[in-house]
Amino acid sequence: MNLSGLIKANNLQNSTAAEIVAALNEPTEYRTHASEVGYRGITLKYGPTFAATVLGKLKAAAASNPLLDATYIAICASGIDFSADVTQGMIDQLQAANVFTSDEASKLKSIGIWQISKAEANNLGTITEDQATAALAEIVEEQAVNVHSQLVAYVHNEVFNANRYATMAELKATVAAIEE
Q1: At what angle do helices 17-25 and 129-154 cross, to 10 degrees?
Q2: In this predicted structure, what is the pLDDT of residue 150?
Q3: Which of 124, 142, 168, 174 is 20 to 30 A from 158 via CA?
Q4: Residue 176: how many CB atoms within 10 A of its CB?
Q5: C-alpha dihedral, 168 to 172 to 174 to 180, nearest 10°
Q6: Dist. CA 109–CA 90, nearest whole Å
Q7: 72, 152 Cβ separation under 8 angstroms
Q8: What are the pLDDT digits (tens) for 16-63?
């Protein structure tokens, strides 16, 4: 969908460019990655320092918890599904227990579930005010063409409707009145 279509689909055609930018760039749509992600995926996404830190913290916590030990082993082997409710909940619990910081927990959770904007969801990237202004101009032009087409159809159907006139003289008089 192009930007003018997205503006109309979200009923923003009477908004300012700034309001459109705010509405369409705000991350409101959820996306999930329901696949197993291991230490390599964490490292690729957030770098080796982050991966080493969270894996070290998980390994330390795993020493006293068999479930965390199994999770640590799985992450180091085939990976785990970070979008799964149980994984998201475990990360929340580890944050609440001060194993992970808020930032670490957010990053780990975002491997499985994250938000994107309506613009991104429609492959438009980040919308600028200039782009929104141009799209609004397209919408106004499109509306003008629609109004013109409706007027032409009205004139054709109402004014030039031959059944409305009993004589050719009446039709000629109507046409002459329009030409003036």
Answers
A1: 110
A2: 76
A3: 142
A4: 9
A5: 180
A6: 10
A7: no
A8: 999 999 999 999 999 999 999 999 999 999 999 999 999 999 999 999
Q: List the beta bridge partners of residue 27.
A: 117
The answer to pTM > 0.70 is no
Q: Which residues contact 107 (CB under 8 A, 6 or more apart)?
A: 45, 46, 50
Q: Which two tokens stand for residue 35?
A: 């696949």
* Dihedral angle over CA of 34, 36, 40, 46, nearest 10: 30
3-state SS record for the chain: CCHHHHHHHCCCCCCCHHHHHHHHHCEEEEEECCCEECHHHHHHHHCHHHHHHHHHHHHHHHCCCHHHHHHHHHHHCCCEECCCHHHHHHHHHHHHCCCCCHHHHHHHHHCCEEEEEHHHHCCCCCCCHHHHHHHHHHHHHHHHHHHHHHHHHHHHHHHCCHHHCCCHHHHHHHHHHHHC
The amino acid at residue 12 is L
* N-term to C-term CA, the chain: 45
Give me 168's structure tokens. Answer: 């050719």
Q: How many residues does the chain have?
A: 180
- The one-letter code for the residue type at 122 is N
Hey, what are 3's tokens?
């930007």
